[in-house]
Every structure is written in C-alpha cells, then in structure tokens.
Design goal:
By secondary structure, the chain is α/β, with parallel strands linked by helices. Helices cover 39% and strands 15% of the residues. The strands form two sheets. The protein has an eight-stranded parallel sheet with strand order 3-4-5-6-7-8-9-10.
Length: 295
C-alpha cells in the first residue's frame, strides 16, 4: 500500500498530504465510503457537524480495525453552535458522535461576518480545547483575508488550517498567499471542481476541460488525478470526496507522477474567478443556521 506523505502544521502536528471528504455524502452511504477510503490507504477523514454523518464516520473508523492514532479525524463546528460555551458543547456533540475522546483537527465552518463576536468566542473555545488536549490542532474554513485579520487580532493561536474552495476554475490566489504568509495550511474543498451548487449553471466541468485532459493524456492519468497532483505540488492539502470505490482508489493514486512547471501554470491559467459555493460574506444565522443534534 502507498504510504502517504505528510504535511506539518504550524504547531508541529503532522497531517496526511491528502484527505478524504464526506461533504454531501448521505449517512447511509458514509460508512461504506469511509471504509473503502481507509482500505485504500487514506488516513485523514474530513467531516463536519453540519454534514450530519459524523456518527457514520466514527463507525467506519472502528470497523476498519486501524489503531485510533493512525487515522487523522477532522470535523467542523457549525455557526449555530458559535459562542464560547456553545462551542465547547459542540466539541462534546462531535466527539460523542464520532466515538472518540480527542479530535485531531477541529475548525470553525464559516466566519459569520455579521456576528463576528460569536466567531471570536467560538475560536476562543477552540483555543481552550487545544490547551486542554481535547483537540490536537484548530483552524477555520471559508475565512477570507479580512476574517483572518480580525480573528488573529482578537485571539492568540494562529489557525493551523483554512479549508477553502480551491480548484482550477476558482483558485483564490490572494487568499492562498495570505494563508501562506501566516503559515496556515490551505485545505482545498471541492478540489476537482465537482461542486453541486454553481449558481448560474454556465460552468462546464473541470473533468472535461481540454487543457486538463491534454495534461492527463500526456501522463496516462485521469483529469481528477491531474487536478489533485496540481494541489499537492503547490503545497495544498486536497480533500476529494466520492462514494464510488474505483474513484476513491483513483483519487488516492497520485503520488507517483509529477506535473511540469508549464503544466502547473497552464492549470493556474484556467481560473475564472467565479465562486461555486456560498459567498463567505453572506453567511448569516438567519439564512444558514440550523440546530445540530445532540450526540
């Protein structure tokens, strides 16, 4: 089995270079998908309270028979649970569903810009959980440069990661540069551009892009493998998701070829600047809040 390279977070904790995501994976398909990923060699599973499948992720990890310390578990606190005490309780809910005592990486799922005091209180709770040894690393997701500035001005632990939308059609180069400047690892969600909520329907699929396909043909690889390799070579941690065992295996098989500088630049040039996911500035409790069930 391929042994997976690791990246070192800004607090010294090691994380596998490639993660496996379960965004929009229905609970009834999650156990099998995560079991397949662990069998192939993935050792980082990324879930979230708002995905409503943490319980199934935990079940799959137990079924795998792997020692707990061999699987890096990441989850996210939803905005409905922001606030200091609320976020401490969100840890209990997530840990309870996952069936683990310690979460490897716990991050805030969105910035909640209009109620940023709640965001700061939530992050301070993450700092407490880190100090208490209940989590090994903390971070954020979908935070823009301004959100990072405001957060770091009010807290003491620099986020270990910022999980953001990055793929060839939406690169966010300015945000990647800011993450890099602060030693924050950029995790790429939707790393091959397969997001399901493009607003205007006008986007073709990155999987059918002629530039990516030409590079894939040159390497005897799939377009998805080329895109994952692009992330890896640029120092990001991609988190692909799939429920199809053959694709889960294909997405993992990306450590034995190398794109040229010209090929990386050609993929960079595909950036449209158009976001597929929701605008981080428009995340509000009114629009996006929903209760997260107890463990």
């Amino acid at each position: 089995m391929t042994s997976i390279p690791v990246l070192v977070l800004n607090n010294g904790v090691e994380v596998p270079a490639l993660g496996f995501g379960v965004f929009q994976t229905p609970p009834e398909q999650t156990v099998a998908a995560v079991e397949a990923a662990l069998a192939v060699g993935y050792r980082h599973i990324d879930t979230a309270a708002a995905y409503l499948n943490e319980r199934e992720v935990g079940e799959a990890i137990r079924r795998s028979g792997l020692p707990r310390d061999e699987v890096f578990v990441e989850t996210k606190v939803w905005i409905s649970d922001y606030g200091y005490d609320e976020t401490l309780h969100a840890f209990d809910k997530s840990a309870g569903k996952l069936g683990i005592d310690r979460i490897d990486l716990l991050i805030l799922h969105q910035a909640l810009p209009a109620e940023f005091d709640l965001t700061i209180a939530a992050y301070r709770a993450l700092e407490t959980l880190l100090a208490d040894g209940k989590v090994r690393a903390i971070g954020v997701s979908n935070f823009m440069p301004d959100h990072l500035d405001r957060l770091m001005a009010a807290t003491s632990v620099v986020p270990a990661v910022n999980q953001i939308e990055v793929h060839p059609y939406f690169r966010q180069p300015e945000l990647l540069a800011v993450d890099d400047e602060h030693g924050i690892l950029s995790q790429a969600w939707s790393p091959i551009g397969g997001i399901t909520f493009y607003r205007d329907g006008a986007h073709g699929s990155t999987l059918e892009d002629p530039v990516i396909n030409e590079i894939a043909t040159a390497h005897g690889r799939s377009p998805a493998q080329v895109m994952l390799r692009w992330h890896l070579q640029q120092g990001r941690q991609p988190i692909p998701k799939s429920v199809t065992p053959s694709r889960i295996a294909e997405n993992f098989d990306v450590f034995d070829f190398e794109l040229t500088a010209g090929q990386l630049a050609a993929i960079d040039a595909l950036d449209t600047g158009v976001r597929g996911g929701p605008e981080p500035e428009q995340i509000t409790l009114d629009a996006f809040g929903r209760p997260i069930p107890e463990a």
